[in-house]
Amino acid sequence: MQGNGKSAQRLTDEERRQYEEDGYFIRPRMFGADEMDALRARADEIAELVEASDALTQQQKETILRRPNPTDESTGPLPLDNMYRIHTFSPFVRSHIRDERRLAPVRDIVGLDLFCPNDLYFLKPPGTGRPVAWHQDSWYFRNTYMSSVGEDIDRSTIGTWMALDDADEQNGCLWVVPGSHHLGVVDHGQVESEGYFLQKRLTMPDELAEQAIPVEVPKGSLVFFNNALFHGSHQNRSDRYRRAYVVHYMKSTIQHIEGKRWIVPGTEEWGTPEMYVCGRLYPGCVQTTPPEASMNWDAALGRTLTKDEVRVKSN
Length: 315
Description:
The protein is 20% helix and 20% strand. It has helices at residues 13-22, 33-52, 58-64, 91-97, 100-109, 137-141, 206-209; strands at 24-27, 65-66, 82-84, 114-116, 119-122, 132-135, 145-147, 157-163, 174-176, 188-190, 200-202, 213-215, 222-225, 231-233, 244-251, 254-256, 275-278. The longest helix has 20 residues, at 33-52. It starts with 12 loop residues before the first helix and ends in a 37-residue tail after the last strand.
């Protein structure tokens, strides 16, 4: 992918300074509008494929397609909150994760040997898109992963947030507290309301809440952020979508915490939840499904998904 005339760019000194001090930096319009439209269209196609499939159980469908209140009657993209780990199924999506416009600065910050622990496609529909409570992604990762070399896991990971629509305060853009990653990982408690996308949240002191700022970015922009950064978003109060595609990267020296690996029952034949990105994999650390064995549901678009396609290929 080389749309919009953009080429891969190494991390600049100013970006490194902002990442270290503020916990994030922005690269505006790194992807063209046509590329964002193509990714949105592919996500919609996969959603339709999943919903129409007789080869998937209801539990498997709900693992991929997340809704505020899952019911058999809630179909189509509008009721969806998000789609989870769609890299598992789509080579087209995996090509976005490996795109050099993402990877060049990621490698400069995290390292050359990488895997993707998860990706999320957020839809945030007009007028109904739910808020995301203040949280740290590192809080979730520390309950699942640890470093095999004794390195702080926050320095072994990075998040990227891609705007598939113009994102502003009205349609529920990302909010951050600059510099909050320096506080380390803090405790998260239960959200008081079911109206939030996440059901765990951190307690935000008033003095920090006053420092929160909106990250308003145009379509095609990339936000790179430290996974310990305090971030969240408000409800979509506009008549526009606010779609975003979030990808996390981790060093291949990361291990699963014993007994904490999370695989949804019924998805064991889908391959590893984590995706290989680049570089080496290390013995005793997270292993991923080989690219050549990963699923290719893109090939089933426009027809019915078969049972043979709902599993990784045998080597």
